[in-house]
Amino acid sequence: MADIFGSITANYINLILITAVTVALITVLVSVKQFSAYAPYAYPNARVMARRGRLLDKKQIIEIIDAKKLEDMYNLVSDVPEYKKYLDKFPFEKAMDMDLAETHQILAKISAKKFREFYEVIFSKWDIQNIKTLIAAKEMAIDTEEIKEKIIPFGKLPEDILVRLLDAENIDEIATALKPTVYYEPVIEAISLYKEKKTLLPLEASLDKYYYEKWLETVSEISNDDGNVLNTLIKTKIDLLNLKIILRARSDGLEFKDIIEYIFAGGDQLYEWKLKELMGAEKMVDFVDGLEGTDYSDILKDALTEYDKIGSISVLESALDKYSMELGVKLAKKRPSTIGPMIGFLSQKEIETKNLKLIYQAKLEGFSPEEIRKMLIGGWT
């Protein structure tokens, strides 16, 4: 009897041990799986968190807004080492852009491998901005030395191409200088309409369309929740871009047929038929009413009062830009352990850069601190 009892007890203990070992192995396997899933993000997210800690807080922004002199503003912004190194070399607005471009470059280098192309496309936007700056400057016959001051020497364009672009006398020579690059086709396709209509919109829209097409391609093979967040981010920005193209086209007296090839059909909420309908709206209030049911309706409704006062679409474009920048911060919260920190930081950095440039311009134009607070992205009233 004792032997039987002992045997049962031993078997029971063995079963407990086997169960415990099995549970421990499962726990280890789950932990390893979780670690392997998040490991690629650990280093880039740690780097990002360190840089996020150097973003200006609310108290610092208010001090900058309240600065009595531009010199005081410069000194306050220069307290941030990343800004100081560029403020020592360049005018204020270029210094802010240089720091932001460097941030884009760093994110492209440190990002997890599967997202590297996503951030590399973001970094390439400085090529697009520089080409747009050059085209606009040549249109206005601005001196080459002055144009150089507006160029942000980041991006992927080789230095010799930038030199040739600076030396170009007109749009045809700009196109020729771009021939060895990926930007040649977008420019050459828009030249005829640019010459016919005498507006820069076709050239700028063609370059933007190329940029967003490439950006969207980078997430086409990412099928998990990270891919969904990035997809939403890009497609919403495409909607906002299309709205800005429509606004500019209406202002420049173009017809929908003139811009249809520059409209990007890959947006989130606005289809081609809706954009065509918006283009045909008789008044701006009708344009905004046509967005009812989308996330963009309230944004532009809030900006209509100011638009009615000054009659400039820049008010509406600014409202769309604010929404675009704040979107990244909002979406980042959906993936806090993977792409969230980088997307969130990038959006916060872009907002900070935009706000500092707004404060600088507003102070130059004599706006009061109370008026400046109302202009800023993120709410500082």
Structure write-up:
The protein has 381 residues and is mostly helical. Among the domains are: 124-212, V-type ATP synthase subunit C fold, CATH 1.20.1690; 219-338, V-type ATP synthase subunit C fold. The chain has 20 helices and no strands. α5 runs antiparallel to α6 (116-123) and α13 packs antiparallel against α18 (314-332). The relative contact order is 0.09. The model is unreliable at 27-37 (pLDDT under 50).
Question: Secondary-structure map with pairings?
Answer:
Layout: H1 2-52, H2 58-66, H3 70-77, H4 81-87, H5 92-110, H6 116-123, H7 125-139, H8 144-150, H9 159-167, H10 171-177, H11 184-197, H12 201-217, H13 225-251, H14 256-259, H15 272-279, H16 284-289, H17 297-310, H18 314-332, H19 340-364, H20 369-375
Question: Descriptors for this entry?
Answer:
V-type ATP synthase subunit C fold; 0% strand; mainly alpha; 381 residues; globular
CATH class assignment of the domain at 219-338 = Mainly Alpha
| Low-pLDDT stretches | 27-37
Mean pLDDT reading: 87
Q: Within the CATH hierarchy, at the fold level, what is the topology of the domain at 219-338?
A: V-type ATP synthase subunit C fold
User: What oligomeric state best describes the polypeptide chains here?
Assistant: single chain
Question: Which of globular, elongated, flat, extended, rod-shaped describes the shape?
Answer: globular
How many β-strand stretches? 0
Summarize the structure.
With 381 residues, the protein is mainly alpha-helical. 74% of the residues lie in helices and 0% in strands. Among the domains are: 124-212, V-type ATP synthase subunit C fold (Up-down Bundle); 219-338, V-type ATP synthase subunit C fold (Up-down Bundle).
